[in-house]
Write a structure and sequence with these properties.
mainly alpha; Tetracycline Repressor, domain 2; 2 domains; elongated
Length: 177
Amino acid sequence: MAKTKRNQDKEDKRQEIVAAARALFIEEGYESTSMSRLAAAAGVAPNTIYWYFQDKDEVLVAVLDAEFSANAQAYLLMSESDPVDRLLWVAKQLARVNRLVSTVHSRLDKSPTILAWHDEFHALSESMLRHELQQAGVAADKLEARVKISVFAIEGLLTHSIADDETRAICAALLNA
């Protein structure tokens, strides 16, 4: 069934708010972006945001979903590339939104909405990583430990700035069976 004009407009407006939030949260940070600032950037009245989102955390989850969706498509297009290049690409995409990653981790105990998103994100990303490690020949009895080690290493790369060649070496070591 085709969407009505009103439903199309509502979804379009929601996407405009998410796009504005995405730019602001990545550039200025979640904590530094007030709902009033977000509303101004989206071209809506501040209370309008609450027609589309329950609270600021729900806006953040929509931004994270938009970011993940955009990157998942690009990741799938890389399926034939070198596994180290793919893992390095993932690490760079996460580094690009490092402020959002930090915000998610700092809000886990404050927001059930963000906690649920975080848990789903980890389940999906760990599944993808598990597949990469299986393809690299990691033995089944070592697989779960290697998934966790890889997650911790990638999260560590986000908190410690190191040279690209060192990051590549870490990604290669993670995938080395």
